[in-house]
Design goal:
By secondary structure, this protein is of the alpha/beta class. The radius of gyration is 22 Å and the shape is globular.
C-alpha cells in the first residue's frame, strides 16, 4: 500500500491498535494453553494462573502499586462503577453517615452516571464545574468538602476529549485532609503521563488495556491496601479477585494487558517525547493551512498526542468528516459520539454549541509517523476548505 493510500489512524483516545508484541504474547494462551486460570488442580491451569499473576505484576508496576492491590475487571467502565458504587455501598452498610460524593462536570459518562445513580440510594451527588482550560479549581473542591462530610471524590487524571491532566498532586491532599476517599479514572493517563499511586496518595485508580495498545475487554482497579480501602462488589459469584470481582479471568486478555503495561513502563519516556514532537509538527502544519484554529484545553497541562481543535468559519465537524478521506479522527468521546448534541465536555469549558459542533479530536499515537501527520494536516485542511465553501454557498 502506498503512503498516499494508507489509512491514517488519529483516534488513539477512542482506542489504540494492539501492539504486535501484545498479540504475540496473547496467542499461545488462545491456541496452546487455554486452561481456566482457576483450575489449579492440574498443570495447565496452574500455568494459566501463573501467567495471570505475572500480568498483574506488570500492571501494578505501571502505576507503582503492589500486585495484590490490582483487581482485574472488564475495563475502565466497570472499574469506575466498582470504585464509586462499591465504596459508597460498603460505607453505607457499615453505618457511615457520610452521603456526599463529589465529581467533576468533564468526567467520563460512566463516572458521572455512577455518581448520579447513587442519588437513588440516598447519596448526595455534587458535580463541580471546571475553568475554561478544563481544570478543576482546588478552591472549588475545598469549598465543596467544607460544606458537608464527604465520602468520596472522583476526578479524572486525564480528560478523554481535551487531553488535560488534572493537578492530582494538589487535589488529592485536599480530599484526604477532609477525610474523603479519592478515586481517579486513569484510563487516558496510563502510558501518557507518569503515574505512581503511592506518590499521588490516591485510594482507587481505574485502568483500561485498550488505551495502552492492549486488548479490549479487560481493565483493572487499583484498591489501596494500607490503610485498606473496602468495597462492596457489584455482583455475586465465585469470589474471584479477593471477592471484589467474581467471574473467570480471561487469561489471554490479561496476558496482553500485562505485556502492554510492561511496554508502556519500559518505553513510555521515549514514546512520550516522540509523540509530543509529532503533535507539535501536526499542529504547526494545520495552523498554517487553516488560520484561526483554536486549541481547546489548558496548553500547559495537555498530554502528548491529544489535540481538541475548533475550526473557524462556521463549518461543522460532521461536514468536514463527510469530506475527509484517508484519516480517522473523531468529534469527541467514542462513548458519546452517537449523541446528536454537542459534547458536554466542550460545553463545560465554555464553548457554545456552534463552536463545539466545529471541533475535532485528534489522537496521535505510538504508530503515527511524521509522514502520517504531514499528510493528515493536508487532508484535514482540504476537507475544511471544501466544507467552508459549501457553507458559504449555502448562506448566499
Amino acid at each position: 500500500m502506498s503512503a498516499s493510500s494508507r489509512l491514517i489512524y488519529l483516534d488513539n483516545h477512542a482506542t489504540t491498535p494492539p501492539d504486535p508484541r501484545v498479540l504475540a504474547a496473547m496467542r499461545p494462551w488462545w491456541e496452546e494453553n487455554f486452561a481456566n486460570p482457576h483450575s489449579v488442580e492440574h498443570a495447565q491451569g496452574r500455568a494459566a494462573e501463573a501467567a495471570v499473576e505475572a500480568a498483574r505484576t506488570h500492571v501494578a508496576a505501571l502505576v507503582g502499586a503492589e500486585p495484590r492491590e490490582i483487581v482485574f475487571t472488564s475495563g475502565a467502565t466497570e472499574s469506575n462503577n466498582l470504585a464509586i458504587k462499591g465504596a459508597a455501598r460498603f460505607a453505607a452498610a457499615q453505618g457511615d453517615a457520610r452521603r456526599r460524593v463529589i465529581t467533576v462536570a468533564t468526567e467520563h459518562k460512566c463516572v458521572l452516571e455512577s455518581v448520579r445513580d447513587l442519588a437513588a440510594e440516598g447519596f448526595e451527588p455534587v458535580v463541580l464545574p471546571v475553568g475554561p482550560g478544563g481544570l478543576l479549581d482546588p478552591g472549588a473542591l475545598r469549598a465543596a468538602l467544607a460544606g458537608k462530610p464527604t465520602l468520596l471524590v472522583s476526578v479524572m487524571a486525564v480528560n478523554n476529549e481535551i487531553g488535560v491532566a488534572q493537578d492530582l498532586a494538589t487535589l488529592v491532599p485536599i480530599a484526604r485532609e477532609a477525610g474523603a476517599l479519592f478515586h481517579t479514572d486513569a484510563a487516558q493517563a496510563a502510558g501518557r503521563i507518569p503515574l505512581d499511586v503511592a506518590e499521588l496518595g490516591v485510594d482507587l485508580l481505574s485502568l483500561s488495556a485498550h488505551k495502552i495498545y492492549g486488548p479490549k475487554g479487560v481493565g483493572a482497579l487499583y484498591v489501596r491496601r494500607r490503610p485498606r480501602v473496602r468495597l462492596a462488589p457489584l455482583f455475586s459469584g465465585g469470589g474471584q479477585e479477593r471477592g471484589l470481582r467474581s467471574g473467570t479471568l480471561p487469561a489471554p486478555l490479561l496476558v496482553g494487558f500485562g505485556e502492554a503495561a510492561r511496554i508502556a513502563r519500559a518505553e513510555g519516556l521515549l514514546e512520550r517525547g516522540r509523540i509530543a514532537a509529532q503533535r507539535a509538527r501536526f499542529l504547526a502544519a494545520l495552523s498554517e493551512a487553516v488560520p484561526g484554529l483554536v486549541l481547546n484545553g489548558d496548553p500547559e497541562r495537555q498530554v502528548p498526542g491529544n489535540l481538541s481543535i475548533t475550526f473557524p468559519g462556521g463549518v461543522s465537524a460532521q461536514a468536514m468528516l463527510g469530506r475527509l478521506e484517508g484519516v480517522s479522527v473523531s468529534t469527541g468521546s467514542a462513548c458519546s459520539s452517537a449523541e446528536v448534541e454537542p459534547s458536554y465536555v466542550l460545553r463545560a469549558i465554555g464553548l457554545g454549541d456552534s463552536q463545539a459542533s466545529a471541533t475535532l479530536r485528534i489522537g496521535i499515537g505510538r504508530f503515527t509517523s511524521p509522514a502520517d501527520v504531514d499528510r493528515a494536516a493536508v487532508l484535514l485542511a482540504a476537507a475544511w476548505r471544501h466544507a467552508l465553501s459549501e457553507t458559504q454557498d449555502a448562506a448566499e
